[in-house]
Design brief:
Blueprint lengths: L5 E5 L3 H13 L3 E5 L2 H8 L6 E5 L7 H12 L5 E5 L1 H5 L8 H4 L6 E4 L4 H11 L13
Parallel strand pairs: 1-2, 1-3, 3-4, 4-5
């Protein structure tokens, strides 16, 4: 694995941002963080991430979608994982995998909070094309 790939982490919950940062740094990634979508927008003017992990609901209920759209305009092809607490809060599963959603949701993966370490790392590695052939299909 390339140990210096940069991942942008944006979450308005400092505990969640810290958890994701610790997981990613522990796996050898460089992590840049922002606590709001607005802060992330400023950061993106000077930092090009290799991937991003964004909270869905921050300042506004759609902050993650809007930030993702802007990130993709600046850096097309940058993979994005969206973290959401919608399922935990409402009991309604939201995964964005239905055909209609894919036309307007520009993320590569949506994960429910709380996210498991193994799940997050597996998705980041997959999106950054770092999965070894022997790791494909292995689920913990």
């Amino acid at each position: 694995m390339s140990v210096h790939k940069k991942v942008l982490v944006v979450d308005d919950d400092p505990d969640m941002a810290e958890q994701v940062t610790v997981i990613l740094k522990g796996a050898g990634y460089e992590v840049v963080t922002a606590g709001t979508a607005e802060e992330a927008e400023e950061l993106l003017l000077s930092v090009k991430p290799d991937a991003a992990v964004l909270d869905l609901m921050m300042e506004y209920k759609d902050s993650g979608f809007v930030l993702c759209h802007h990130l993709k305009q600046l850096y097309p092809g940058t993979p994005v994982i969206l973290l959401t607490g919608v399922t935990a809060a409402t009991g309604i599963s939201f995964n964005g995998n239905v055909a209609d959603a894919k036309t307007w949701i520009e993320v590569e993966k949506i994960l429910d909070k709380p996210v498991r370490k193994e799940q997050l790392l597996a998705e980041v590695r997959r999106l950054l094309h770092e999965v070894d052939a022997c790791e494909c299909g292995v689920h913990h």
